[in-house]
Amino acid sequence: MKLFKKEDKMSSLVTANCNLLPVINRFGIRLGFKEKTIAEICTEQDVNPDFFLAIVNTYTDENYFPEQELLSFSPLLLIDYLKNTHNYYIGYVLPKIERLLTKVMETCRDNCDSLKMISSFYKKYKTELLLHLKTEDEKVFPYIVNLYKNRNRQPDQKSIAEYEDEHTNVEEKLSDLKNLVIKYLDPNYDHNAMNEFLLALFQFEKDLYDHARIEDAILVQQVIMLEEEVKTKPAQ
Ligand SMILES: [Fe+2]
Ligand SMILES: [Fe+2]
Question: Rounded to the nearest whole angstrom, what is the distance from the C-alpha of residue 54 to the centroid of ligand 1?
Answer without folding.
Answer: 18
